[in-house]
Amino acid sequence: MDIVSRLKMFLQENGISNSLFADNCAIPRPPLSQLLNGRNKKVSDELIAKIHSAYPSLNIMWLMFGDGDMFVPNQKSDAFADTHEPV
What region, left, alpha or beta, does residue 68 occupy, with left being phi > 0 and alpha being psi -120 to 50 degrees? Predict the structure, then answer.
C-alpha cells in the first residue's frame, strides 16, 4: 500500500471529505484531488508537514511508510471533533 492509499484510508475511516481535508491542511483542493486520483504521484515534504500540523494524532510514519498504527497512541479520542463536516 502506498502513501496515497493510506491517505484515502485515513479520510474514509474518519469521515473526512477531500475538500474538508484540503481546507484543514491549508492546501488547494485541485492538487489534493490530483494526488488522490493518481494524476500527481509526488507527495512533497511541505504537504506532509501541513498534514501533520492539521492532524497531529495521525501517525506520520504510518502515512509515509506504513509503519505502526494509523494514530499516535492515546491521541485519537477527540482529535477529529472539529474536523468533521456537520451531519
Answer: left
d(CA 40, CA 23): 19
pLDDT in tens, the chain (87 residues): 999 999 999 999 999 999 999 999 999 999 999 999 989 888 899 999 999 999 999 999 999 999 999 999 876 544 454 555 544
Residue 39: DSSP 8-state: S
The full DSSP string for 46-80 is HHHHHHHHH-TTB-HHHHHH--S-SB-TT--TTTT
Task: Tell me, rounded to whole angstroms, the distance of Cα 46 from its chain centroid.
Answer: 13
Is 42 in contact with 31 (CB distance < 8 Å)? Answer: no
